[in-house]
Design goal:
It holds the Pfam family Ank. By secondary structure, this protein is an all-alpha fold. It has two domains: 139 residues, Ankyrin repeat-containing domain (Serine Threonine Protein Phosphatase 5, Tetratricopeptide repeat); 133 residues, Ankyrin repeat-containing domain (Serine Threonine Protein Phosphatase 5, Tetratricopeptide repeat, Alpha Horseshoe). The chain is built from 17 helices and no strands. The longest helix is centred in the last third of the chain and has 26 residues. It is elongated.
């Protein structure tokens, strides 16, 4: 964060700068001299907000003792506790919460302090906030929860700090499905290892395998099938993973599903099978190859039966 600009009003500039560099004695002197405790500079940061953002706990305590606004938001909608959480300043977070800061305050993107801490991988602050009663089912306006960033090492720490593996976002999307559609094999493996249900569905009946098939995430699909995903499970519209893969033209996904025994004859609620919804030439060639192999096997069976 840059220092305050010279155009800032003089009535609170010295106070703000003292908070910025973490000098509690200077903060106190400026307040004694009449500086406004909630003055704002640099995209709407108050002295308390900038001290919290940078982890200056002693300056934070002085400002709290002098009545600084706990819920003052900057231009991004962040409160002091949100900034402290995002930057991993657990002691500051505790001080603010002890004085009554809103544990579920939301910024312009709908992020709570817990989501802010999770987004930046601040596992100790995540644990602290969970222990303080933070809503572990909260999601931001994009439907993202604390596991949505998919840095695997961070996700592992979050799972270890009590973030629920079956967490669902406001739009019903799950952590497993979000990782599957993004093709993050390691994140999917991590979630499965922590007990995620491989057959869990979200709105529309979508399973992780179906969304991965539509995205062509072959590595994820292979892992899900290895962990017991039903290859011909249908979503609410009757589509299977094979139909989805064919519809979206993901040839490698189609090939994998056929190799794993997916039914080429399965139809959706409109009576359409995977070959009927396919418009991609490469996928059509995969189906033709599959049908040639099937015919060859049938001929061998007939010849063997005749003999």
């Amino acid at each position: 964060m840059a220092a305050a600009r010279t155009s800032a009003p003089s009535s609170g500039k010295a106070l703000w700068e003292a908070a910025y560099v973490g000098r509690p004695a200077t903060v106190a002197r400026q307040l004694d001299a009449g500086a406004p405790v909630n003055c704002r500079f640099f995209t709407g940061y108050t002295p308390l907000a900038v001290a919290a953002h940078l982890g200056h706990i002693r300056a934070v305590r002085v400002l709290l003792d002098r009545g600084a606004d706990l819920e003052a938001k900057n231009d991004f909608g962040h409160t002091p506790v949100q900034d402290a959480a995002a930057n991993g300043h657990g002691e500051v977070v505790c001080a603010l919460l002890d004085r009554g800061a809103d544990l579920e305050a939301r910024d312009s993107d709908g992020c709570t302090p817990l989501l802010a801490a999770a987004r930046f991988g601040k596992a100790k602050v995540v644990r602290l906030l969970v222990e303080r009663g933070a809503d572990t089912e909260a999601s931001n306006r994009f439907g993202q929860d604390a596991l949505a960033s998919w840095n695997v090492s961070e996700a592992a720490r979050l799972l270890g700090e009590g973030v629920p593996v079956a967490w669902k976002a406001a739009d019903g999307n799950s952590a497993l499905n979000a990782a599957s559609i993004a093709g993050h094999v390691d994140a999917v493996r991590l979630l499965l290892d922590h007990g995620a249900d491989v057959e869990a569905t979200i709105e529309g009946g979508y399973t992780a395998l179906v969304v991965a098939a539509g995205a062509g995430a072959v590595g994820v699909m292979s892992l899900l099938l290895d962990r017991g995903a039903q290859v011909d499970a249908k979503i609410d519209s009757g589509r299977t993973a094979l139909i989805m893969a064919a519809m979206y033209g993901t040839a490698d996904a189609v090939r994998l599903l056929l190799d794993r025994g997916a039914s080429i004859e399965a139809t959706d609620d409109r009576g359409l099978d995977a070959t009927a919804v396919c418009s991609d030439d490469e996928v059509r060639e995969v189906f033709r190859d599959f049908e040639r192999i099937q015919r060859w096997h049938r001929r061998r069976v007939v010849v063997a039966w005749k003999h």
